[in-house]
Amino acid sequence: MEKEKKISLSVHHIVKTYPGVIALKDISIDFHEGEVHGLMGENGAGKSTLVKVISGVIEADEGSFCIGDEKFEKITPHQATEKGLRIIHQELNLIPTLSVTENIFMGRFVGNGITVRFSEMKKRAKKLFEEMGININPDVLVEDLTVAQMQLVEIAKSVSQEVRVLIMDEPTSPLTQNEVELLFKLIRRLKKRGVTIIYISHRLSEIFEMTDRVTVMRDGEKIATEKTEDLDRETLINLMVGRTLKETYPPRSIVPQTEALRVEHLCGNGLMDISFNLKKGEILGLAGLVGAGRTELVRLIFGADKIESGDIYLEEKKIHIDSPAQAVNLGIALIPEDRKQQGIILELSVKENLALPNYRLISRRTLVNKSLENECVNKQVERLRIKTPSVSQLVKNLSGGNQQKVVVGKWLAGNAGILIFDEPTRGIDVGAKQEIYNLMNELTEQGISIIMVSSEMEELMGMSDRILVLREGKISGCLERSKGEFSQEGIMDYASMN
Amino acid sequence: MDMLKKFFNKFTVLILLIIVIAYFGITAPGFMTIGNGMSLLRQIAVLGILSTGFSMVMIAGGLDLSISSQLSLVSCATAMMIVNGVPSILACIGGIVIAVLISTFNGFAIVTTGMPAMICTLAMQQVLQGVVYIFTGASPVYGLPNSMKIIGQGYIFGIVPIPIIIMIAIFLIGAFILNRTYLGRYFYAVGSNEEATRLSGLSSKKIMILSYVINGIFVGLASIVLMSRIASGQPLAGQGYEMDVITACVVGGIAFSGGKGKMLGVVQGVLVMGVLSNGLGVKGVDSYTQLLCKGIVLIVVVSIDCLREKRAKSQKMVISHENKKMNHQKEGAAE
Q1: Whole-angstrom distance, CA of residue A148 vs CA of residue B327
Q2: Confidence class of residue A428 from pLDDT cuts 50, 70 and 90?
């Protein structure tokens, strides 16, 4: 029915697997000339992986794709650029210490091959900006621009070259309202020129305003490609989240009563007016999309970033946290997302890892007391049932689940009462996930309170007593298990920007 | 207030230079004479030429600590060639070629293996110093013809030393390369964001190696000026120059992290170093104390540079948060 539409980019049966994970399962999509094609899905649905394959950053295991009439099984970034594929990344690819003009023409300066003709380049940059309706001085250094202006320069750079397919990954997240309007105007102009725009965004309103068609991905699969006009908000959310739960979660038996931690009107690190409480023995889930401020919030509470205003109360007592060391002393511990880099030291033994933050407890007159050390280490190994042939085994030889237990153990040995898990099961196989879920459950039975940041809906709903949803640095909703409020749609609704 | 700050930021080095000159002018009689001025400039000629090449390497994100040994090696090698009957011009060209080869090797080794420039060139410094000792038997090479001394000791119009003319010419060439040529702008690009440069379709490795190649040319020239000034090839002629050069560049605003700095700043940095060591000399401060002073200058200037960078970064973060907040207010208003 859309015979008249020419196809500018198509992917056929793309498969990409990583050890233990299938990132892309048999993806086939056609992108038309002159259309804005939305690409949607939760975090980790495979959008970025697909873009990386098309742009040559990574290679697909199977499948092929066509740019124009040319077929590729793999492509280099340089070739992709030559074929007119441009990507505007979330992390900007500009050179901060050079001028705007130079950045726009980087790699294709105007001149005689030896000396550069700055005046001519500046003239062209000015003309380009005028056409685009951007008001930026081309002489300014990029590092002196705001993030939004940088984004516009990046777009100008892409547009100033022959472009067939323009991929935009969350382009509006750093922009103000006026700049978003400007961007949309630009997109419409490009569309008229026949450029295909692949628009990745979490903002539903933008998807409905700008796109002609939408492809929804979930867990590495293409769920549907639909005309935007045939969709409504609810259908789209359902397409994005609609799946059945796969894991089994241990039943939550305890009913948390007393308060362990209370946060009032916390600001800083991009967060605004965050207030919530955490009860003893509770698992509090933190949900939200990438960039919503989950990790930022956790870092504030842990003292890794500066609190601008607001108060934190620990068991009804007001506390000040300026550094992670203070947080640890107060019994707040962070189990970071990147276990191998930040959580444990791979080249050290189980014993040394467990003892590392606790040497003050196991020392007498500045010397390490061997028997105290063994007692402390063995207690944690038993309590957490860490499976290791001996405590002198190097941590790198343990399974992912057991490594995670070591991270937990080193804080428990120091009598931590509040554990913050940042993506507790990322990169851990299914069996080990189960172990960690059981562990978290047992910990809460022992009176430990847990804040869990997670991008996995099922995990949040399976484990948490309550789920706080963040959106753009604010709390947008709170769902309670006991009131039966948990649903993927509910969380997604709070998390998505309208 | 803001204007004053801006003015101060822009002219920090110049102000520093004026203060240092004024200080010595008042406290050290004999400092403020034309004769001393000329001899000061002649003293900094080698430093100036070296700093020009070095700043390019630094802007492109590299470092070359072996320039001191290169200086010794090339001046000894050139002197030996001349003493052994090679025509002076050919010997000088030969010296420059040696410097270029060494520098190119440094760049190549650093870029292809990915080893830290500091380690690689520090090792190279030892290797080259060893080579100099082996070839000279650790004794100076004397016997240069008088014609060879003109470059380092001669005058134009009877009062302007030739090394100064050479230095000014090199400064101009350096400024031209950095400001006007493709290559110069690529140095900034690579030093500032290598990945972005690569994604712009440029060969970032090639650009980085070229910065070392150009550095080699300038090291070669500096070696000949130095040899000519001391009228011999001294096995330890270059000792300590690498620190002076780094200090001059950093004082002049070349960022250690790469991608930043201007030739005019380097000129000022070189002048500060020259005035400092000449002024202390005129005041009769011994060379040990001079060393101490220069070391302190380097530490102070680098820490100021790093603190400034840190503050700029945190300010930027605040700005982006403010932006977000504004966004929210607008959205709120729209609702």
Answers
A1: 12
A2: low
Mutate to test the interface with A, among B55, B59, B173, B182 (most CBs of A within 10 A): B182
Q: What is the H or E stretch that residue B309 is in? A: helix B287-334
Give yes or no for A97 touching B (CB within 8 A). yes
Tell me which residue of B77, B118, B119 sits closest to B101, measured CA to CA: B77
Q: Which CATH architecture has domain A7-241?
A: 3-Layer(aba) Sandwich (3.40)
CB nearest B182 (choices: A116, A146, A174):
A116
Which class does domain B42-307 fall in? mainly alpha
| Interface ipTM > 0.85 | no
How far apart (Å, rounded) are the C-alpha atoms in residues A31 and A51? 13
Q: What is the pLDDT of residue B308?
A: 77
Q: Maximum CA pair distance of chain B? A: 89
pLDDT by residue (tens digit) across A229-276?
A: 998 888 888 887 765 445 578 887 777 788 899 999 999 888 889 999
Q: Which fold does the domain A259-495 belong to in CATH?
A: Rossmann fold (3.40.50)
Strands A466-471 and A474-480: antiparallel
* Angstroms from B260 CA to nearest CA on chain A: 6
Q: How far apart, in whole angstroms, are the C-alpha atoms of residue A286 and residue A452?
A: 6
For residue A94, give how far its alpha carbon lies from the nearest alpha carbon of chain B (Å): 6
CB–CB contact B192 A95 (8 Å)? yes
Kindly report the average pLDDT of chain A as a whole number: 85
Domain boundaries, chain B: 42-307
User: How far, CA to CA in Å, does B207 sit from each of B94, B104, B213?
Assistant: 25, 12, 10
Contact in structure between A29 and A225 (CB atoms under 8 Å)? yes
Instruction: Give the separation between CA B245 and CA A29, rounded to whole angstroms.
Output: 58
pLDDT > 70? residue B333:
no
Could you tell me the two tokens for B87? 């025509």
Q: Does B6 touch chain A (CB under 8 A)?
A: no
How far apart are alpha carbons A275 and A271 in whole angstroms?
11
Q: What letter would DSSP give residue A343?
A: I
| A215 exposure class (CB count in 10 Å sphere: 0-12, 13-18, 19+) | buried
Does residue A80 contact residue A56 with C-beta atoms inside 8 Å?
yes
pLDDT band (50, 70, 90) for residue B159: confident
pLDDT-derived band at A213 (thresholds 50, 70, 90) equals: very high
Tell me if the pTM is above 0.90.
no
Span(s) in chain A for CATH 3.40.50.300? 7-241, 259-495
Strands (E), A303-383: 309-314, 317-319, 332-335, 363-364, 367-368
Token pair for residue B233? 């090839």
Q: How confident is the model at residue B335 (pLDDT cuts 50, 70, 90)?
A: very low
Q: What is the pLDDT of residues A332-356, one digit of tens each?
A: 998 887 777 788 888 899 999 988 8
